[in-house]
Structure formats: structure tokens, C-alpha cells
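hiii so um. not sure if this is the right channel but i have a protein structure encoded as C-alpha cells and i wanna go backwards to a sequence. like what aa goes where. can anyone help
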């Protein structure tokens, strides 16, 4: 993680106060598949304000972001008590959608454990329909893209499921 000196934006955003809890462990003795997504969601919650989607936006604008689609990859087993570090990179956005990519690392070894790519929609909560983001939020996201665009694209981004996909080298 670093602060982009041009934009003052954390690049990528980082959440590192997440630990694998006992209730997240399955009968195989490792992190249950559903809790990988839960941990990614917690990691996203930790950077929600930094992205410009804070609770003030939800209250003042009566709008929020809803997940529309996601793609998870599993790279490494996680065990009880493992500490996690989750990075979030904004890959793109338009007036109604954001595409984000998260990487989950074992905090101590820095090994990649999983990735999650998200497409989220900006929702008018009074109508519960997709709507355009306000101009100031789009300007904020443009600054984030300016900063995050300097990061390399994650190899897993944009992937679908196929027999030809391979893991990182």
C-alpha cells in the first residue's frame, strides 16, 4: 500500500483488521467458501468511505451501492486465527456502475489467498432502481481511477470460468 503523492489517495485501498474466526471454519478445518466472500465484504466496508460511498452519502442522497455480479478465485487455504489483508482497486466506473477488484492476502506470509472482482450498481433507495451517481461522486471516483490506474491490472481480472484458465505463476 502506498499513498499516491499526486492524488493523496491510498493505492490500493487496504483493510487489515480481519481475522479468521472459529465460526468461519468448516468441517475440513479451513475457511468455509462462504466466509471468503464475507471477508471480502468486510474489506470493502473498511474502504467504503475512502471510495466516496460513505454512510453520509446513503443518508443524504438516499442512495447506495448494490452488488450486481462477482467472481471469486481461491488461491490458498486459510485457517483459524489467520490474519488477513485485503486490498481494493477500482478498475473502472461509469455513471451507474463501479468495477472493483480485491485481493486477499495472508497477513503474515503475504501469500495471495483469494481474489474477488465486483460489479456494483448505484441505487436510488427511494425507487430501489439503478440511477446515475451525483457529479461529485463521479469526480471522486475519477481521482481514485487516476491513482489506481497506475497499478498493474490483476491477472484474474476480467476472467470468466473456463477449463483454460490457469493460476498465477
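sure thing!! here u go:
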Amino acid at each position: 500500500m502506498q499513498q499516491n503523492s499526486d492524488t493523496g489517495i491510498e493505492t490500493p485501498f487496504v483493510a487489515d483488521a480481519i481475522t479468521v474466526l472459529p465460526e468461519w471454519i468448516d468441517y475440513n478445518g479451513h475457511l468455509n467458501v462462504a466466509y471468503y466472500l464475507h471477508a471480502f465484504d468486510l474489506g470493502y466496508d473498511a474502504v467504503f468511505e475512502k471510495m466516496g460511498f460513505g454512510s453520509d452519502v446513503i443518508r443524504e442522497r438516499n442512495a447506495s451501492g448494490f452488488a450486481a455480479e462477482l467472481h471469486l478465485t481461491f488461491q490458498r487455504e486459510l485457517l483459524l486465527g489467520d490474519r488477513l489483508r485485503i486490498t481494493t482497486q477500482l478498475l473502472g466506473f461509469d455513471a451507474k456502475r463501479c468495477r472493483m477488484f480485491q485481493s486477499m492476502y495472508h497477513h503474515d506470509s503475504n501469500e495471495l489467498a483469494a481474489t474477488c472482482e465486483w460489479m456494483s450498481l448505484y441505487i436510488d433507495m427511494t425507487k430501489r432502481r439503478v440511477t446515475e451517481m451525483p457529479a461529485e461522486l463521479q469526480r471522486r471516483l475519477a481521482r481514485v481511477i487516476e491513482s489506481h490506474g497506475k497499478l498493474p491490472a490483476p491477472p484474474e481480472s476480467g476472467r470468466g470460468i473456463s477449463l483454460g484458465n490457469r493460476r498465477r505463476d
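oh and The chain has a mean pLDDT of 91.
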